[in-house]
Design goal:
Elements lengths: L3 E2 L3 E2 L4 E11 L9 E12 L3 E10 L7 E8 L10 E12 L6 E10 L7 E10 L11 E9 L2 E7 L12 E8 L4 E7 L4 E4 L7 E10 L2 E2 L3 E2 L3 E2 L9 E4 L5 E4 L9 E8 L2 E2 L5 E4 L3 E4 L8 E9 L4 E2 L16 E7 L11 E8 L8 E8 L5 E2 L3 E2 L4 E4 L9 E9 L12 E4 L5 E6 L12 E7 L6 E9 L5 E8 L4 E3 L9 E10 L8 E6 L9 E7 L4 E7 L10 E10 L5 E7 L4 E4 L7 E10 L4 E3 L3 E4 L6 E5 L5 E5 L4 E13 L8 E19 L12 H8 L5 E4 L5 E13 L4 E10 L12
Antiparallel strand pairs: 1-3, 2-3, 3-4, 4-7, 5-6, 5-8, 8-9, 10-11, 11-14, 12-13, 12-15, 15-16, 15-17, 15-18, 19-20, 20-24, 21-22, 21-23, 21-25, 25-26, 27-28, 28-32, 29-30, 29-31, 29-33, 33-34, 35-36, 36-39, 37-38, 37-40, 40-41, 42-43, 43-46, 44-45, 44-47, 47-48, 47-49, 50-51, 50-54, 52-53, ...
Length: 756
Amino acid sequence: MAIVWGAAQADSTNAFRIGYELTMSPSTVSSGTSSVTLSVKLYLGTKYYANDSGVDWSIGAGFSPGSGSKSFDHNSGTAWSSSNVTLLATVSRSVNTSYSANVTGSVLAWVTGLSAIAGSASVSVSWNIPKRPTGTPAAPTGCSHSRTSDTQHTVTWSNTSPTNAAAPYQNVQVERQTNDGSWARIATVGVVTSYTDKGTVANRKYRYRVRATNSAGASGYSTDSSFYTTPSAPSSVAAKKTTTGDIAVTWPDPTPYNTGIQVWHASDGVWESTPLATLSDVTSWTHASPSTSVTHTYKVKSTTSTPSLASAFSPQSNTVQLLAPPLAPTNLSPSSSAVDAVNPVVLSWQHNTADTTDQTAFEVQHRTSGGAWATTGKVTSGVQSWTLPASTYSNGSTLEWQVRTWGDHVDPSPWSALATVPLSSAPTVLINTPVDGDSWLTSRVSVTWGYNDEEFNPQARWQAVLYNAAGDVMERIDGSGDGNTVEFGTAVADGFTYSVGVIAADSTGIWSAEDVVTFPVAFAKPPRPELTLEWIADAAAVAVSVHNPPTEIGEADAVSVSLWRSVNGADWVLIADSMDLDSSATDFIPGLGVVNYYKATAVSDLPSVSESIVEEIVTDQARAVWVNAGPGFSQAVRLASAVKVDKTSSRAKSLRRVAGREFPLEVSGQQRTRSINLSARLWAPTHPRAALSSSWDELEEVADMIAPACFRSPEGDRVFVSTGDLSETDALDMTRGLSWSFERVDYAEPTGEAFA
């Protein structure tokens, strides 16, 4: 380093001074540096040539050696030449470092006794030793917890040398693990040894860990053992006899973090005082060889081992009875409702166990009303249905039938209640219109049908269905009585194929088979309209004239016209609806300087539609900004002098801190802001260029109108906006400065609904 010089001591012809160079060893202070050695080199400098056999020097503050004498001989006549510098001595001392602050100090070094120059010179030797950095703290030990309730646990630990100056504690971080998942920090506390966690809940598995932190970093963790809170009870229990005479008890797993199950038992409805079985975390258990002299009912609890906790009881199971005959079957079908005897008749029932055993066999008996019984005999089967063969009995009579079932008991159930079933022929229907394969000429389909019943039972109910070509149901209409005509409300489309189906039920409740016809739809279309486009420069608008040619043979009369526009190939939007034939409309807001496409659709009463050839027009940029507002955007103003457009864009956002995340998360909303700020020049009314822009009064009128307005610029902007503040500033050169703000609003042009 360069020599630091003190003030010079001078006489009329010469001067001298003392300087120093300071170094430190080691040159940097780390956490292991307890002291450093300061070395100082002291120098004598004279302004011009001088010599002496012995000049005295001294330095204090514990530097060694503290003083001495040194001869010198300087020969340069150049003022303060580096040749007139002599090293007097090198001295040193040790200085202890500090964890709390930098160590600073200073000492004066002197030089005296020059024979040629009287007096003494000094310099202040200063030092600044950086403070000693601390190390990461030692890890806490003995992390554990104590339970107050499911919702409160106290975590405790021991801090290891928390006040050690070399690695002190600044904070302790407490973390919790839930259900063997990831660790989450739940608290950062000071230099304490406990924390009460009130954020736990029932039916969980938890674990805690803690670590110390300071500015140097974090220690390792001290980790608690896992523990549980009160588990949930199983939601249900089922009991069922097995083929070996045991009882299988099952329940759903109430939680993945209980460690055991208690099974409790009641004999003849009397609950025992201790669990019948204590199990690991399972979902079933077999009660082997239960007593056959009592009934059996069960309920269960979930348990944990650390700590020892038990849930509430589950709901109790069904009661398992001794082997007994089943109860009489129920839910016989068919019963009361008629069936067609020429078809097989499926007879079904519900087996009603008394001892939880499934159906093992059944017997069905059947007859016509008042006749002799016919029986299937005992049929070994668990199926709860049997099919009566077709034409076993004749239509016009009444079928009576009943059933009994067996379980594991040797005896059957009682016979079921008697089911009576009228036997009647199914009616038939035949669709008259539409005719299968013939074209349908309108958008609404009407179906008519004929009805026939061999037994002259009247039509009581009916159903008509309209299908698309894929067989999907488009509309279903149900009715009652003897009607035979219905019109569907769903419109069919020209050029597609559809089907209709009809079924009917007679007064006995028997339904016919479905009659279905399929037909194409072919509408007559109106003549194709023709368009003429004209650019209206003074309004930056397009005038559209529609011509409807006369109707020719095979065409339908047009009754109205709709007009559509697409800007630069974007979606088609409706700009006029239900127009008279051979009429015109003005599009006040076409895109500027781009291709605008137009088409017209003629509509008949069927309704059928024909579409014009698409016409296009490239609109003039007009080098002006246009703002349209009012009904149909028909009120327009323009600005064309010194126009400047500034745009801003933003979206609703916020940053939120989340526990366990180092950096915040961004939450973005749906709200967006798009703003336009416009500045322009208005000329005085007498100026030749005044006509380039609208007047202040015209601008003010549009600015007062209710949104939406349409902002258009030569750069292709076409935005629906709310008009904001409008202001002007007069100048002295027949101009006025104009500023106007806009903000985009949520508005979309109509794309097919009725034009308002």
